[in-house]
Amino acid sequence: MIIETYNANETFKLGEEIGRKALPGQVYTLNGDLGVGKTVFTQGVGKGLGIMEPINSPTFTIIQEYEEGRLPFYHFDVYRIGDIEEMEEIGYDDYFFGQGVCLIEWAELIEEILPPDLISITIEKDLEKGFDYRKITITGLEF
Ligand code: ADP
Ligand code: MG
């Protein structure tokens, strides 16, 4: 499925819709260049899950946990990961195979440990269509 957005709010709203429908145990991977809108999308997912506190990229930690929503929400940003060992250290499999919702920014960097069943989201720019245009490709999700 491909969705096109023309401003940040539309990407946020798409995330929100996905957050509203998210199910326990789902793992969402999020790929795309720096500044493409991964965190904007994630903030929408958080709102859709009913999380009121602000969601920002966990820059100094790999994972940020939110327990106040409809389901536990585990937001990973693995951009700065040096070694896959760091994922072992935080006990990632408890999250990936747990009953919350996982969302992983820069998931391509930890490809070898991703579960087989995941929902993949890729966000891309196309400058010919404007600065704020984004093409969002989602696979593995039934709407
Ligand atoms: P990432 O997490 O991928 O590095 P961010 O979500 O932090 O990126 O930042 C995306 C930036 O792009 C924000 O400043 C946002 O306002 C801007 N932006 C412009 N158009 C869009 C769009 N269509 N979707 C998402 N973000 C957009
Ligand atoms: Mg980000």
Largest sheet: 7 strands, mixed
Low-confidence regions: none
Specify the helix fraction band.
10-25%
Average pLDDT over all residues? 94
Taking strands numbered 1, 2, ... along the chain, how are they ordered across the largest sheet? 1-7-6-2-5-4-3
Rg over alpha carbons: 14 Å
List of distinct ligands in this structure: adenosine-5'-diphosphate, magnesium ion
Order of helices and strands: EHEHEEHHEEE
Which shape, going by the Cα principal axes?
A: globular
Give the tally of β-strands: 7
Distance, first to last CA: 9 Å
What class, by secondary structure content? Answer: alpha/beta
Strand content: 25-35%
Instruction: Figure out the total of helices.
Output: 4
Write the layout of secondary structure elements.
Layout: E1 2-5, H1 8-21, E2 27-31, H2 38-48, E3 63-66, E4 73-77, H3 85-89, H4 92-96, E5 101-105, E6 119-125, E7 134-139
Helix pairs in contact: 1-2
The chain binds adenosine-5'-diphosphate and magnesium ion (MG).
The site of adenosine-5'-diphosphate has 16 residues, from helix 1 and helix 2.
